[in-house]
C-alpha cells in the first residue's frame, strides 16, 4: 500500500502504550468518504485529525449519527484478518435506514476497514487477546435548526490498538428505574443516542461499586435485555441462553457468533425471554450456573455478581463455560483454529 509521506511519518512516530487497555489511544490513521449531491465520493486514507463540523449540523442537533465496532487480528495469520466485517456493514446499513441516512455501500465499507487495517500493520498488537479495534461512523453534515435530516453525510473510520474492555469478572446491577429503549425506537440499531441515554445509569452503578447496569424491558421492567455496552448470556440447565431479540435489543455480532459456536462445544443454544426475578432465583438454586457479557469490545467476559437493589447474588461458577466460549472464539479470530464458516476476511485481499 502506498501511503503519503505525512501518513507514513505519523505511523512511524506513533508509540503504543503498555499496557494497552481498551480505547486509550486513537491511532494516527483514519479513512473518510463523503456523500454529496446524492452520491458517494471516493474514500481516502489520511492522518487522524479533528474534522470541521458546523455547530448546527444535524449530527449535533438531532443525533443523526450511527457507528460500528469491529476488530482486526494478527496473531497466527500471515496477514491481519477482520472478523465478520460483512455483518458490521449490514448492521450499519440498518442503522442508516432507521436514521434517514444513505446506506454506506458494502464495498466502500469493506474497502475502508481493510485500508485502515493495512495502513496500521506496524501498530497492530500481536499478543493473544489484543487487536486493532475499528470504529466506523456515519453522520449528517447539513446545517439547519428545523427538524429535518441532512442531504450530505460523512463516513469515517478511526481505530485504536486495544486489549479487552474488561480485564476481570464484572459486577452487574439491575437497572429498575430507567429504560434503554422501547419497541419502535432505535434500540435495535447502533445509534449513538442509545449510548448517551445509558450513561446516567452506568455512572450510578459504578458509584455503587458495579461495572455495568442490566437493562430490563421498558413495559414491565421484568425481562432482561442487555448491558449498556454489550449483550448478556446465561448458562441455564446446561444450555447457552440469550434474551430473544425483540426490537429493543441490539443484535450483537459476538452474541450471534456464540450462539453458532454452542453446538461446537456440545451445548444447546436458546434465544428466549429471561425473567430477571426467575434468573436471580435460578442462580441461587444452581439452575443458572454462569453469566457472562459478550461483545466486540468485551469479547467474552464472566459476571461474578448480579445485584438487584439490596439483593446481592453471587454466581456459584465464574469463567468456566465463558472461558470455553472465549477460547473457541479467539482461536478462530487469531488463526489457531480453522474458519469453517467464512467469518475471517483477509485485509490484504
Helix content: 10-25%
Overall residue-averaged pLDDT value: 97
Percentage of β-strand residues? 25-35%
Global outline: globular
Radius of gyration: 20 Å
Most strands sheet = 9 strands, antiparallel
- In the predicted model, the low-confidence regions spanning at least 5 consecutive residues are none
Distance between the amino and carboxyl termini? 12 Å
Sheet/helix structural class? alpha+beta
Please work out how many helical segments DSSP would assign: 9
Count every beta strand, where a strand is a DSSP E run of 2 or more residues.
Answer: 18
Write the element-wise H/E pattern from the N-terminal end onward. HEEEHEEEHHEEEHHEEEEHEHEEEHE
How would you portray this structure in words?
- The protein is α+β, with helices and mostly antiparallel strands and 349 residues long.
- 25% of the residues lie in helices and 28% in strands.
- The protein contains 9 helices and 18 strands.
- The strands form 2 sheets. Strands 1, 2, 3, 4, 5, 6, 7, 8 and 18 form a 9-stranded antiparallel beta sheet that branches. Strands 9, 10, 11, 12, 13, 14, 15, 16 and 17 form a 9-stranded mixed beta sheet that branches.
- It is globular and about 60 Å long.
- It starts with a helix and ends with a strand.
- The model has no long low-confidence stretch (mean pLDDT 97).
